[in-house]
Specification:
Blueprint lengths: L9 E5 L5 H9 L4 E6 L6 H6 L12 E5 L13 E7 L3 H9 L2 H10 E13 L5 H7 L6 H15 L1 E9 L1 H4 L5 H6 L6 E9 L1
């Protein structure tokens, strides 16, 4: 089971998509400030407007969204995050975290405070997603690969591995994202959980 964040400070959700995780977390934890970051503004249009309303009408004073690619996160965020989430990335973001792209990892470390927890959840179906994985240059995603190749790249970027495991459907179905809900009936999808601490 992935435990909800109980620390203090600021939580960033990279590749936030439609912002569901940010919205749900901000409602559940009013003492935290949630920031969703994504390069695509379209899925966030309605929610971005809604969170500016009064709380009684669905507003969230402890949430905001920023339009930016992970490699271009504004300098104002440097050292700001106490926790960073990347849940079910796709496309370029998936390639970056699953291969340990040095530029992206440097960007993540730049925004992380000392001791920041970086949580990554990667979900792939080796059959259904085969063409996309090949296009991205990803040779499958596994705990074994993480140990042999991926973790040293994260360590070089300033992240110490805390935990790595494969999640059961019951565990990853609890992640509050639209993508997790959409995929919940796909039992062939392998979901890998990796967490790191900024050092």
């Amino acid at each position: 089971m992935i435990k909800p964040y109980r620390g203090s400070g600021i939580v960033l959700d990279i590749g936030t998509g439609d912002g569901r995780f940010v919205s749900a977390s901000a409602k559940a934890q009013p003492d935290k400030f949630l920031i969703g970051i994504d390069a695509n503004a379209k899925p966030l249009e309605k929610l971005s407007t809604r969170i500016t309303r009064k709380r009684a009408k669905g507003g969230l004073a402890n949430a905001m969204f920023v339009l930016a690619a992970v490699e271009d996160i504004p300098k104002e965020f440097d050292g700001l995050a106490d926790r960073v989430h990347i849940h079910f990335p796709w496309g370029g973001l998936l390639r970056a975290v699953a291969t340990g792209d040095s530029e992206i990892l440097a960007s993540l470390r730049r925004i992380a405070s000392a001791g920041c927890l970086l949580e990554i959840v990667i979900g792939v179906d080796p059959i259904r997603d085969k063409a996309e994985l090949e296009r991205l240059g990803i040779q499958g995603v596994s705990i074994e690969k993480a140990v042999m190749a991926l973790l040293p790249r994260y360590f070089e970027a300033g992240f110490r591995n805390v935990e790595r495991k494969e999640l059961s459907p019951a565990e990853w179905n609890d992640i509050e994202t639209s993508w997790a809900r959409k995929l919940k009936n796909n039992r062939k999808r392998r979901v890998i959980y990796l967490s790191f601490e900024a050092c």
